[in-house]
Amino acid sequence: MSFESFIARKYFRAKRRTGFISIITYVSIAGVTIGVTALILVLSVMNGFEAEVRSKLIDADAHIRLRKYFTDTITETDSLLKIVRKNPRVIGAAPTIYEESMIKSSNSQHPTIVKAIDPGSADKVLDIKSKIIHGTLEFKEKDLEGHKLPGIILGRYLADRLLTLNTDDIVTLFTLPKEGGIFSQPRVMQFYVAGIVELGYYEYDRMFSFISLESAQKLYNMPGGVSWIEIKIDDYEAAEQVAKQIEDHLGYPFVTQTWFELNKSLFSWMTIEKWGAFVILSLIIMVAAFNIISSLIMIVMEKTREIGILKSMGATSKSVMKIFMYEGIIVGILGTGLGSLLGYIIGFIQMNYKVISLPADVYIIDALPMQMHLVDFLAVSSIGLLLCFLASVYPAYKASRLYPVEAIRYE
């Protein structure tokens, strides 16, 4: 143990002639503790919400989409499916058609994104069957009002907007003309509502409707063709790697898109928001750092005589500077240690006992989500210790510049 650290600990534990200095020191420790706790909890909550959003997106969509350049129709569906399914990490692949359309009920009309699926293979990619909240995943034709109509599955909030909350209600899909200008005629097809689905992601539940591949090929004039091949793998985090393998194997004109690429702006914004909060909440620790500066300056003033004696006994300016920098570091270690412990305890309680609840009808989840990551603890502790270290530099430097004769002249 160096004599600098020994003296620093003695100074830290010693009773002050002015009790106000001790109060400032304790306030500094409390400030660092509160700042570190707040930072850890905010980052954990943001991690929790990001995980929830990612989970909802992944449950509602495929991990990888395979398509042709220029959105050309895929006609070699069967051969592509065989190639894709040979990849050892692929656990499901299904053809699909995506098109933007208008949907009309007897009460209302709204835009929709039509997703055509094959119920036999789609369930291996998208767990839609378990998300049906009313009706069934059924597209077979049914006799209604003297016509044979195919079935359609509506997203929960789209059904609310259309006021089609009962099965067998009739809706009409209109295609949006892509060529020919405003005078081109849209293609029209009627459907009966076979069911209502809640995927758990609001934007999808507000816009999506599902029909059979056969109906979509007829409505959108795509005989035997599909828009995309949707792929599910064993680990969504490996999507980029698997997508590259598939793209390299197939070559031009095929291209892949991962779930992250399709939602890149959303996750980028969440990352910016997370680290923006990190920087802003670090100001709490900075306020505590200013308290460290003031308390150390007052300690230097109180210990002027002792500093003079130490220097007269042979202590160097560097040693004196180390003594007071150690004091600042002790405050930082105590504050960040207590803050990290408190943040972990609060996070653990929330994760396991759901103390802070949320209205499930608004947020879909019933409690404030939290995920604690080791990297967040390390980042917060590092910034806390760094700010405390920097706060101790100026007072320690001032102490090291004292001359022994001047320090003890009037003692």
Count every beta strand, where a strand is a DSSP E run of 2 or more residues: 12
Q: What distance lies between the first and last C-alpha atoms, to the nearest angstrom?
A: 30 Å
Order of helices and strands: HHEHEEHEEEEHEEHEHEHEHHHHHHH
- By secondary-structure content and strand pairing, the structural class works out as alpha+beta
* Unreliable spans: none
Q: Shape from CA axes? A: elongated
Write structural notes for this entry.
Helices cover 54% and strands 18% of the residues. With 411 residues, it is α+β, with helices and mostly antiparallel strands. It starts with a helix and ends with a helix.
Characteristics of this structure?
411 residues, alpha+beta, six-stranded mixed beta barrel, 12 strands, 54% helix, 18% strand
Quick take:
Helices cover 54% and strands 18% of the residues. By secondary structure, the chain is of the alpha+beta class.
Q: What's the layout of helices and strands?
A:
Elements: H1 3-13, H2 19-60, E1 64-68, H3 77-85, E2 90-104, E3 109-117, H4 119-122, E4 132-135, E5 142-144, E6 147-149, E7 151-155, H5 156-162, E8 170-175, E9 188-197, H6 202-207, E10 208-212, H7 213-219, E11 228-233, H8 239-250, E12 254-258, H9 259-262, H10 264-302, H11 304-312, H12 317-353, H13 360-363, H14 374-400, H15 404-408
Parallel strand pairs: 3-10, 7-9
Antiparallel strand pairs: 1-11, 1-12, 2-3, 2-8, 2-11, 4-9, 5-6, 7-10, 8-9
